[in-house]
Amino acid sequence: MTAIKTIRERAGAAPVRLGLILGSGLGHLADAVQGVAIDYADLPGFPHAGVSGHRPRLVVGDLEGVRVAVLGGRTHYYEKGDPGVMRAPLETLRDLGVETLLLTNAAGSFRPEVPPGELMLIADHINFAGTNPLFGEPTDARFVNMVDAYDPGIRAALSAAAAEEGVALPEGVYAWYSGPSFETPAEIRALGILGADAVGMSTVPEVILARFLGLRVAAISTITNMAAGMSNEAISHEHTKAMAPLGAAKLERVLRRYLRTLG
Predict the structure, then answer these.
(1) Does residue 225 have an active-site annotation?
(2) How far apart are alpha carbons 78 and 82 in whole angstroms?
C-alpha cells in the first residue's frame, strides 16, 4: 500500500491545502490539529526521524479552518548522509494537494537583538553544508531557480500576522550547517562575514526539494541559543529542546493568525 493510499484511507480524500514541517522541540504543535495522526512507520517511503525532540508522525486535519498536513519530525542529512532523505514525504504532501509549505526549525542567532525565545522569518539561505538534495536527479528540473525561494507574498502575510499578534518577527538569512556536531566559533565568524543571521542543521534541503516540486515556501526559525562563541551558554541538543518551547508559543500564535487569513 502506498503512503497516499494509507493517508486517504485513514484521514479522508479531501485535498490538503498547506503542509507544515516542525523542528526540534516543536512537535507538540501538531497536537493542535483536529485530525488523524499516522506514524511514519506506517507510511511507505517515509524515513524514521531519529532525533529526540521530534515526533515522527504525520497529522492530517483542520487547523483554524484550513486542512493541513503536519510532519511532526524530519530526518536530517547528518542522520543518513543523504541530503534528499525528505523527498518522499514532500512528494506525498504535493500529491495530497499541498501548494504551500511552511517549515520551522530551531536555530542559533548571530544577532544580540534576536536572543533565545525569539523568532526569525527566513528571507534567504546559505548552503554552508556544500551538498544538495537534487544530486543525481536526471531531469533538467534539477536546475531550480532559488531567487525568492522564500515566497515574498507568504513572508508578507506572516509578518502581518505577527504584527497583529504583537510578536516580533524580524527577517534574516539562515545558514545550513550539516551537523551533527555544533559549529566552532571560527565557523560562526566566517558565516557572519558571509551574511548569516542564524544557523541550523535542517530546512535548506527541504526548501530546495519543495521548490523543485513546485511548492510555495516560507520558513520560521525559533531561536534557542546564541551561535557558538557569542555567549557563555553551553550549547547542546538538550539545551535546544529546553529552549524551543519559549518561542513555540509565539510561533503557534503567528501560524494560527496566518491560517485564519487563509480560511
Answers:
(1) yes
(2) 8
3-state secondary structure of 120: strand
Average pLDDT for 160-177: 98
Q: Write down the catalytic residue from 201, 219, 226, 243.
A: 201
- Which residues are registered as beta bridge partners of 195? none
Q: Is 145 a catalytic residue?
A: no
Q: How many helices (H) and strands (E) does the chain have?
A: 7, 9
How many residues would you count in the chain?
263
Domain count, the chain: 1
SS3 197: coil
**79, 99, 165, 252: which is the annotated catalytic residue?**
79
Say which CATH number the domain at 233 has.
3.40.50.1580
Measured distance CA(87)–CA(47) in Å, rounded: 10
**DSSP of 137-187:** --SGGGS---TT-S-HHHHHHHHHHHHHHT----EEEEEE---SSPPPHHH
- Cα–Cα dist 151/147, whole Å: 9
**3-class DSSP state for residue 200?**
strand
pTM score, whole prediction: 0.93
In this predicted structure, the answer to whether residue 52 has a pLDDT above a threshold of 60 is no
Answer yes or no: are the C-beta atoms of 204 and 153 closer than 8 Å: no
What was the pLDDT predicted at 236? 64
**Of 119, 166, 154, the residue nearest 23 (C-alpha):** 119
Quote the Cα angle for 244-249-251, to 5°: 85
Write phi, then psi, for 120 (nearest 5 degrees). -135, 125
Enclosing domain of residue 112: 3-262
Q: Is 48 annotated as a binding residue?
A: no
